Amino acid sequence: MVSRIYLIRHGITEGNQRRWFYGKADIPLAAEGKETLKRLAARGIYPRIPDDADCYTTGLLRTEQTFEILFGNREHKVIPKLREMEFGDYECQTYEELKGYELFDQWCYDETGDAKLPGGESNNEFYARIAEGLKELQGYHHLKELSHRHSGKDAVSVVVCHGGVISAMMQALFPEVNGNMWDWIPDPGFGYMIEFDKGEAIMYEKIKDIKKLGFGLMRLPMNGEDVDIEQTKEMVDLFLSKGFTYFDTAYGYLDGKSEEAAKIALVDRHPRDRFQLATKLPAWAASTEAEAKAMFETSLNRTGAGYFDYFLLHNLGDKRTPAFDEFHIWDFLAEKKAEGKIVNLGFSMHDKAEKLEEILQAHPEVDFVQLQINYADWESPTVEARKCYEAARKYDKPVVIMEPVKGGSLAVLPERISKIFKEADADASLSSWALRYAASLEGVLTVLSGMSSLEQMKDNLATMEDFQPLNDEEQVVIKKAAAALDAMPQVPCTACRYCEKGCPQQIAIPGIFRALNNYMIYGNKEGAEGNYEWETREGGIASKCIECGACEDVCPQHIKIIKELKKAKEVFE
Q1: What is the pLDDT of residues 193-235, one digit of tens each?
Q2: Cα 242–chain centre separation
Q3: Separation between Cα atoms, residue 281 and residue 329, nearest integer Å
Q4: Any idea of the CA torsion for 391, 397, 403, 405, to the nearest 10 degrees?
Q5: End-to-end CA, the chain
Q6: What is the pTM of this model?
Q7: CB atoms within 10 A of CB 72
Q8: 3-class DSSP state for residue 369?
Q9: C-alpha distance from residue 174 to each of 3, 56, 79, 184, 334 (Å)
Q10: CA atoms within a 13 Å half-sphere pointing along the CA-CB vector of 140
């Protein structure tokens, strides 16, 4: 059984807009507050609470309106002791209006906590009242835990209250965490998830507003061998202008040019607090521990970021996982996190759900995981997207989704499959269906898309700017298309190119598979032969394979590459 309490601050009011001191005043939400809450809810940042969750407000209009927008007409109770501080005669006035008043100045600079405004509360009185309200809330929540002790169902409570109140409760629940009152106050509409074990608060997560589209810098636009920096700058600027903030790169992407492009197009041109930057360390690509650890500083220097908002151990799975233990990378990155050079530490993985669970059990400290999830792989026996997602949720890890469009494969589908989507929505692009499918899953931090042109970005932004989760009818369309796709023979390659890097014959494996899939899916042999000639123009043809197996050892999709290359040889050579 999981035991959680969600604390959510009410939406924006006139008091917030005017920067008033106010607590007891029963102020409604402003129009901006209502619209902002609706947008945040549409983005899926709030928990999908179970039907039997216990819900609470403070009874003040702003909390009631917020609760209704977020959770509808659910039954809920009122805890008056969790109302905001009372400012007495000085309610609904600003600091500028009040400064200079002797009693106000005494209250502002009081270090004892006993000073109070005329008709209002002192800080000590406020904290004592909130302590009583928190005790009442925890008592109710304990009853919820007891009622679920046999069924094993999650015990969930949700409280919509006030910024100062949430701060006071978080200080009481996590006294060991450094920070003052202001550090704990969430913005309107935001808050915290708190997890309990045997009545004790054991961890918390912020409710975050990272929009559900991340810019994957793996497939940037190129000019020959170099990144097209000017187009990348345009893409970065457009991405940020629409409110999207998550950028994902890696030590090995484009042989380091991806991280360098992140510096030039993003870090050097935009305030550091305007975006989140993620990168990854592939310890399995190193020969020694020193070489593996040096990758971190190389990434830090290439990007110029100063720190990483999200840092990942890159591509765990199969024979790659042991390198992170042998080179002591887990401990090394934990140290970097303690130094403030990493904010959130996680890992990406291409392997079966059983292996994912083993790592999550061994490393409960990780903040998130990155997984390949798309509707084509949801029930795949090799990728196990559904099973891996469920494992991550079981261990309460937020998920960053990669390959939502399966390396572009779901953006160009056979006519009989694309027809399924077009009949449902003639105006929606195929990639938009794939992105929305991934982003509709609960517990998803963001969905990465490796965009390689301004046009691709515009299409994805049009889909995700005002993201709406798939409804029941649309989910049926997805299932129908996935079933039709499963019935077609094809090589499940995502063009990650891990296979190429270790191939002694320098065979153009992803390009060959693109040509083979073109033939297998569309039956267009002439076109496929043209594809093959182009992809192997530098000599890396299928018949050069010496069957060493190096490619199969690193393939995240577990493709029988040697077998498929033989097939390509028969078709094209």
Answers
A1: 998 988 999 888 788 778 889 999 999 999 999 999 999 999 9
A2: 17
A3: 9
A4: 90
A5: 59
A6: 0.67
A7: 7
A8: strand
A9: 16, 22, 22, 11, 21
A10: 18
